[in-house]
Every structure is written in C-alpha cells, then in structure tokens.
Design goal:
Helix content of chain A: over 70%
Order of helices and strands of chain B: HHHHHHHHHHHHHHHHHEHHEH
Structural class of chain A: mainly alpha
Radius of gyration of chain B: 25 Å
Strand order of the largest sheet of chain B: 1-2
Helix content of chain B: 55-70%
Largest sheet of chain A: none
Strand content of chain B: under 5%
Number of helices of chain B: 20
Number of strands of chain B: 2
Shape of chain A: elongated
Oligomer: heterodimer
Chain lengths: ~200, ~650
C-alpha cells in the first residue's frame, strides 16, 4: 500500500466518522423535538391514565439494564477490532444483537399490554406523545439491529478491512447514541413520570 | 373490499377535475409526452441515464437542481398570475373564474413550491456548482449521499405535481396550520400530498446540509483557513448549520401531523388534549431559520459579485463573517414574531420583537459593507451588478417593513393582511431571487464556457424590477386598507379593485422579464461563438473557481491549489504565481451509480402509496428502499483512479 493510498484512506475514515457525528446531532435534535412535544403534552391526559398509573418501573429498569449491557458489549468489541480478533468481534456483536432484540421485544410487550388495557395512542395527547417518543427510539434500535446483522456478515466474509473498521466505528457511535437517548427517556419519561 | 385492498383510497373519481384543472393536467401530460418523444427521436435515453441520472458529479447534480427549480419557478409564476386574475375579476356580484377550493389549492401550491422547490432548489444548485470549486476541492464529502439528496428532492417535486392530475392538493395554505389540516376538517388527500411532498424533499435537504457542512469543514484546500474562505462559502457554512438545526424540527412536525391523520393520535387536534398552537410554534421554529437558509446564500453571492465588478477587495471581510454568524444565531430566537397574535404575554412578545429588530443590525452592516466596497471602485455595470443595485433598493424597503411588523402592536393590525404578503415578497424576491439571478449570470460562463447576452439580461432586469414594484407596492396599501391574504372575493364598495389591477399588471411585467431570461439563454446558446470564455476567467475573478478551465474538468483541479490569502486567485495573478510546471498525482473519483435515482423512484412510490393508503405498496417500497441502500452501502469498491499520466495528457491537451 502506497503512502498516498494510506493518506487517502485515513482522510476518508476521518471524514465519514465526522459526517456520522454530524448526522447523529441532527438525530439528537429530532429526539429533542419529540421530548419537547412530550413535555408540553404530558399533563394532557384528557381523563385517561397518567404516567404514574401505567408505568411499571421494575420492568423498565430491566429493559434499561438490558440496553446498557448491549452498549457495553458493543463498546468492548471496539478493543477487539483493534486487536484484529475477528472471532471475538463477531461473538460480541452477536451478544449485542441478542440484547438489543430482547430490549425491542420487551418494549413491544409493554406496548401491547397498554393497548390491550385500552390505553393506546388514540386515548389522549399524553399517550400519543409517549408512544411516539418511545417508539421512535425503538424504531432506531430496530434499524440498529439490522445494521448489526449486516455487519456480522461483513466481518465474517470480508474480514476486518479498514472499510469494515470504518463502518463498525459508525455503528458503535450509533448504538451508544441510542443508549444516551434512552437514559433521557428513562429519566424524564419513566422516573419523573412515575413519581 | 378487494378494490380498497389493492388501491386504497384511489378511485376513478380522483382523475375527475373541472375544466381549468383538466387544462393544467393535460398541458403537463403533453409536456411529458413532448419530452419523451424528443428523447426517443434523438436517441438520447442512454445519454440521459448514464450522463445524468447516474451521475455523482456535483456539477451535474447542480444543473439538475436548476432544471427542477426553473420548471417550478414557471409553475409558481403561473399560479401567481391565476391568483391575481381571480382577485381582479371577483368583485361585488362577479365571482371570478376559479372555484373557492381551486383558488385555495393554487395559493397553497404557490407558497409550497416557491419555498421548497424554487428557493431550496436554487440554493442547492449553487451549493453543488460553486462550493467545491471555491474551496479547491474535487468533490463533495459524500458524493453518493449527494445524489440521494437530489433524488429525494426530485421525488417530492414529482409528488407535488402528481396532485394536479390524481386527486387534489392541500387547501390549507403553505404553512398547513392545524386543526384545519387535521383529518376532521380536511379528510381528502390534499393535505397528505402537501405533507409527503415536502417531507421527502425536506429529508433530502437535511442530508444535503450534513454533506455540505462536512465538505466545507474537512475538504478545504491546504492553506484555506476559516478566515480565508470566500464569503459565499461562509454563508453556505452558516446555511448548513441552520439546516442541521432546523430541518429535524420540520421532519418531526410533519411526522406528528401525519400521525394525527393516519393513526388518530392527538398532537395538534382540538379534542383529546391536543395542542394546535404547538404545531404553529414547531412549524415556525423551522420556518424562521428557513427564511435565512434562503437569504444567506444570496448575501454570499452579492459578496462575490460586488468586489469582482468593483475591482476592489470586499470591504470589511471580518465584520461580514461576524454579521453572518450573528444572523445565524438570532434566526433561532425570533420564531414567535410569526404569530404575535397567539396571545403570549406582552413580555414574551416584547422579547421576540426586540430580537427581531436586532437582526436588522448585522443585515445593515452587510449592506454598508457592499456599498463601501463599491465606493471608489472601478465599477463595471454588468447585469450581476444591476441585480445587486435592484436588490439594495428593494431589500432595504422590505427590511424596513419587516422592522415595522416586528413591533407587536403594529403586527396586531397588519397580521395576516396583504401588508405582510408584500413584506415577505419584498425580501424574498428582492433578496433571494435577485441574488440568484446575479449569481446565475456571474457563474454561467464557468459551467458552459460562454457568457450570457448582456442586452437581453438588462431587459429582463428592468422588467423584473418594475414588475416587482407594480405587483407588490399596491399590496402594502391594500394591507393597510384591511385586505387580508388569501382573499378570493371582496365587495366593490371597498375600492380595492384598482390596486389589484395594478398588481396584476405587475405580474404580467414580471412574466415579460422571465420571458426575456428564457430568450437570453436560448439566444446566448445560439450566439455562443461570440461570447466564448476561453481563459476560464471572464470577469477578472478573485476566487479559485476562476483559476480552472470553463467548463471545469470532471476532477475540477488537476493539482490541489495552495492558498495563503482571502482573494486567493487574484493574489496569484498579481504575483504571477500560476503554476507553470505542475507535478501531477493520482486522483480518486467516485464511480457513478444508479442507486440514488432508484432510491428517489422508490421514495416517490412510497409517498404516493402512503397518500392513497395503499398498504401493500407502502410496505414493498419501504422494504425495497432499505434493502437497496444496504446493498449499496455494503459495496466497498466505490472509487476509481485517474492516474498522474492520464491527467498530464488531458491537461496538456487543454493548455496547447
């Protein structure tokens, strides 16, 4: 590999990772707007239930732990990438995938239970904003799961080339970002809503 | 049952329209048939596909943006003429030639397409064409993403125009205020067409914002520090920051409105705890920055044009940069001035009024900077300069009427009146449109290799300027007399008709200006041998784009330029520092790809399906889009190399 080529690849890597950061900041604003809507509408229960009546904190705490664990396994996979340990990277991403899928599953279960009890998004403005905020996060996590699955195949078939490395860095940023958003949802929607 | 499974809400009645609407859709169909026949007859399909639809070259993508914006400008002008004609005719006992609903659809379409497809279209034209050249780069940061952005923009444009033929367009104004846009009051597909055409185009704009932000931050040529960037690049950087902060809000707002309509949520409804005023707040939290997204690049254009044609460097570069930065920040804390009448407390209104007045200061700084640049310069009064002078006059008047409106008690009187309509047309036509025309004439030779005809350009300028004054100054008076906007009928005794007639005459004169511009382009193409630009620097330019051939080669710069001052190219010419014995290196360029085009096609299908609630098609087109993007992103080999020796060959051919 020539030095010119190496320089080109480094530039490309830095540019993409920076660009992905910028994208994440726009996504952050998207969530910010949804949070604002939630804050405006959280007391507009219109005779329906308030957060206090429908949130089950132990369940949500389990969900949170599952997601944080997935972020941990995703994070340490970065070290294995630097050690070029292909097998371990795949293993860690498989665990991340399973934990993420569990999280989405638990969220879907929570939603179905609420809808069964008659507390769907149609009931009140509070529930509309609650479902939209949490489900938008859940949609992002689901997209992340597809991304992880695709990357597992890429690592398996292409190995840890610099271009796969670049994509994994973006994926980790995305996954940690979703974790941060969840911390905010956990705090502002669930903890403060249930108290 | 089967029919609604297959076609959703789409039935044959969607194709039935009244005579005027039929006329519009038939003429559109005829235009498409004419284009298809022409392409087939000249055997140009392959050329169109490989050279344009698959292209990732920002220079070509810029031209495609221009094509869409031009078409939409024509349609927007026709809409405007129809509105004014109705207002001239529909007085007293006469009710004009348009039905109420059709009139409402036309003013909604006029506003929507002028902002989203003309305004955004022309700024992205110049982003794509000029930014890489001015920063000495060979491409944008993410070429494939750039193509996707354009095709999303194009999909939105197609959706908007499809509403002419299939179904109807929104009747709720370009701002689409709830609860009027809720399904309870607007059950038809019109509002859905409005939502999805700007939602899809808006996501394209957001991605472009990311792309050009990264391009400017990371791809400037060596030596070009922030304070040595051309001012146009500075304005684009500020614009992309505005896009990054503002467009996610629009995406969410439109998303929530569509949830209200599709899934019966209660964000902006009047019942069940919804809050319609939240829609208005969110809309303008995007909408006010949007105004500056349109005008800042125009300021940038004038900052390029005025020094070149005054043959002097720009007065007060640093203050110009700080003025841009100040406007960028202030534009986020003034949104409430769009609805002082909401009923917020006097303190809140006073705060937003004061912030609005504050914006006049950095804007004034800019105006004086341009005027001082002209002072003691050797001015060449070319058409770009004429557009600038027209801008100074009209924009200053528009700005002052804006300061008037920022005073809340006055705004209560003029709110939703034609005074407001006159104000924002005053700043948008005088600012954005005149700015774009200046930039178009200025950069035209760079991308075609020949200049535009001056005489016809001067005619066009005077028609636009006079037409503009005729069309909008009467509206100030009408507004003060109490005429509200979006008015399709009024009493004869009010004495408004003469003013509407003058305004309508103004529209005709503007049309003449547009006609001269079309003529100017056609004549200049025919007459190009007499206006050739062989040097690549027809205006004695100051910035890097003039240092390369016109039209530029695919890779823009054979050798990466090295910059050490603000007007880099001008300094190089003064020092005679132009590289005579270059040393070439390999260049990496992105491979063309049809995927961007396909994504656009799929998103158009997705939009159409979701508007008509054709569930199976929504699912298929969404899954197909995701799959296609994944497939493309898994592809590693996206670049090819132009070797140094090939480069030397092409470059020496040009120099001999």
């Amino acid at each position: 590999m020539t030095t010119d080529h190496l320089k080109h690849e480094t530039e490309n890597y830095n540019k993409t990772v920076f660009g992905f950061w910028v994208y994440l900041m726009t996504d952050c604003l998207l969530f910010g707007t949804l949070f604002v809507t939630y804050f405006v509408l959280q007391h507009s229960t219109f005779g329906g239930p308030s957060g206090k009546e429908i949130f089950s904190l132990p369940f949500i705490l389990t969900e949170t732990v599952v997601l944080l664990l997935s972020s941990f396994t995703c994070g340490i996979s970065g070290i294995s990438v630097n050690h070029h340990d292909k097998g371990r990277v795949i293993g860690l991403y498989l665990i991340t995938f399973l934990l993420g899928a569990t999280f989405v599953g638990m969220e879907l279960y929570e939603f179905t239970e609420l809808v069964k009890e008659g507390y769907s998004w149609k009931r009140s403005a509070f529930l509309s904003s609650y479902f939209t905020l949490v489900a938008t996060h859940g949609f992002h996590v689901s997209m992340g799961l597809i991304w992880i699955a695709v990357m597992i195949f890429q690592i398996y078939f292409k190995g840890l080339t610099w271009i796969v490395h670049k994509r994994l860095t973006c994926l980790r940023l995305f996954w940690h970002f979703l974790d941060v958003v969840w911390i905010f949802i956990f705090t502002f929607v669930y903890l403060m809503g249930a108290s | 049952m089967i029919q609604s499974d297959l076609f959703g809400k789409l039935t044959l009645s969607a194709f039935k329209h009244n005579a005027i609407e039929m006329g519009a859709s038939i003429s559109m169909v005829l235009m498409v048939i004419a284009a298809v026949t022409f392409l087939t007859y000249k055997k140009l399909w392959k050329w169109l596909f490989t050279e344009w639809l698959c292209s990732l070259d920002p220079k070509k993508i810029g031209v495609m943006y221009l094509f869409v914006a031009g078409l939409m400008l024509l349609k927007g002008l026709i809409d405007a003429a129809m509105l004014r004609a109705q207002q001239v005719l529909s007085v007293g006992d006469s009710y004009g030639y348009l039905s109420e609903g059709h009139f409402q659809q036309i003013f909604t379409a006029h506003g929507t397409l002028m902002i989203f497809f003309v305004g955004m279209g022309i700024i992205f034209t110049l982003f794509n064409l000029v930014v890489p050249l001015q920063i000495g780069a060979r491409d944008v940061a993410f070429p494939f993403l750039n193509a996707v952005s354009f095709w999303l923009f194009f999909a939105g444009f197609l959706l908007l125009n499809t509403s002419l033929m299939i179904g109807e367009f929104s009747e709720a104004g370009w701002v689409g205020y709830s609860p009027l846009t809720e399904s309870k009051y607007n059950p038809g597909v019109g509002v859905d067409y409005w939502i999805w055409s700007i939602q899809i185009a808006g996501i394209g704009s957001l991605l472009s914002g990311v792309n050009f932000f990264v391009t400017i931050i990371r791809m400037r040529c060596p030596g070009m520090t922030f304070m040595k960037m051309p001012i146009f690049v500075w304005t684009v950087l500020a614009t992309t920051v505005l896009i990054l902060f503002a467009f996610p809000i629009l995406t969410v707002t439109l998303g929530l409105l569509s949830f209200d309509r599709m899934f019966d949520t209660h964000f902006f409804t009047t019942g069940s705890g919804g809050n319609p005023m939240m829609y208005v707040n969110l809309f303008w939290a995007w909408g006010h920055p949007e105004v500056y997204i349109l005008i800042l690049p125009a300021f940038g254009i004038f900052s390029e044009v005025v020094p070149v044609f005054s043959q002097k460097k720009l007065f007060g570069y640093t203050s110009m940069v700080w003025a841009i930065a100040a406007i960028t920040v202030l534009s986020f804390i003034v949104w409430l001035h769009h609805f002082f009448t909401m009923g917020a407390s006097p303190n809140v209104n006073a705060f937003f009024g004061a912030m609005t007045m504050l914006i006049a200061i950095p804007t004034g700084v800019k105006i004086f900077n341009w005027l001082f640049t002209m002072l003691r310069g050797r001015i060449r009064l070319t058409t770009p300069m004429l557009w600038f002078l027209g801008f100074v006059g009209t924009f200053t008047i528009g700005g002052m009427s804006g300061v008037l409106l920022s005073i809340a008690p006055f705004d209560f009187q003029a709110h939703n009146s034609l005074f407001l309509v006159a104000h924002f047309h005053n700043v948008i036509i005088g600012g954005v449109v005149f700015g774009f025309f200046a930039g178009f004439t200025y950069w035209f030779p760079k991308f075609t290799g020949f200049k535009l005809n001056e005489t016809l350009g001067v005619y066009a300028f005077w028609c636009w300027l006079i037409g503009f004054c005729l069309a909008f100054f009467p509206l100030y008076i009408l507004g003060l007399m109490g005429a509200t906007r979006r008015l399709s009928h009024y009493d004869a005794g009010l004495g408004w008709q003469p003013y509407f007639i003058i305004a309508a005459v103004g529209v005709v004169v503007i049309f003449a200006g547009f006609g001269f511009q079309v003529l100017q382009i056609l004549y200049s193409i025919k007459d190009r041998k007499n206006n050739l630009d062989t040097s690549g620097d027809p205006w004695n330019g100051r910035t890097l784009e003039w240092s390369i051939a016109s039209p530029p080669p695919l890779y823009n710069f054979a050798i990466e330029p090295n910059v050490d001052s603000i007007d880099a190219f001008y300094e190089m010419k003064q020092k005679g520092d132009l590289n005579k014995h270059p040393h070439y290196e390999d260049i990496h360029m992105p491979k063309d790809s049809p995927v961007g085009f396909l994504v656009g096609a799929l998103m158009f299908t997705f939009g159409f399906a979701i508007i008509w609630q054709i569930i199976w098609l929504v699912l298929i087109s969404f899954i197909a889009t995701v799959a296609l993007v994944i497939k493309h992103l898994c592809y590693d080999d996206t670049e090819y190399t132009i070797t140094a020796s090939e480069l030397e060959k092409t470059e020496s051919k040009r120099n001999t």
